[in-house]
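Troubleshooting entry. The earlier prediction with S-adenosylmethionine gave an output that would not parse, so I re-checked the input for stray whitespace and re-submitted. Clean input:
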Amino acid sequence: MDGSERPVNHHGDHPGFSGLTGQLCAVAFLLTGRETGRLAADLTAVSATDHVLDIGCGPGNACRIAAARGARVTGVDPSAAMLRVARIVTRGASVTWVKGGAEALPVPDAGATVAWALATVHHWPDVDAGLAEIHRALGPGARFLAVERQTEPDATGISSHGWTGAQAETFAAMCESAGLTTVRVGSGRAGKRRVWTVHATRP
Ligand SMILES: C[S@@+](CC[C@H](N)C(=O)[O-])C[C@H]1O[C@@H](n2cnc3c(N)ncnc32)[C@H](O)[C@@H]1O
């Protein structure tokens, strides 16, 4: 990283999504998050044998897609407003919703076979702590996938919510330092949106 690069959690000081504003953001994420959820389910080949942990699940698009594929699903988010909307719009799908953050995941050790962090790592106050928790929560051989929108280094406002290629590479190095293996950075599309993907395995 040269001195000018923003950290991977460059919105880690975001105040969080609460109250009416939080619920309005949740509705917006409902509309924008479906393609990312489909991409995550495809890239991790989620099936009925999986237990998916969606960290920073927001209004739960990706959780419902995993549940529709027969997986057991736990959606974790620190925002009560996000979880409220997730519960309201989830009808017929079996998802366990839990309030919590990446840095202290409210789940048992080694229980998940897949963990996703979709458009959320850039908000985590402590990414190393989040990765240590992912390592703890995943069982041996489990898959981890982070997805972030591709952004320009000088982006501001809403369009800065994502990563440059250098930030994706920095996050991949952090995954390796956390003990995850087969870490690789990819570039893909979630609908019209270009995204970075970081895949890893829990050894
Ligand atoms: C842009 S939204 C993405 C929601 C969803 N993953 C999606 O793709 O639609 C970012 C989410 O990250 C959550 N978040 C913020 N800080 C977090 C943290 N420390 N750990 C886990 N999730 C966090 C927010 O509450 C919010 O729901």
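This one parsed fine. Residues 10 and 155 are 12 Å apart (CA to CA).
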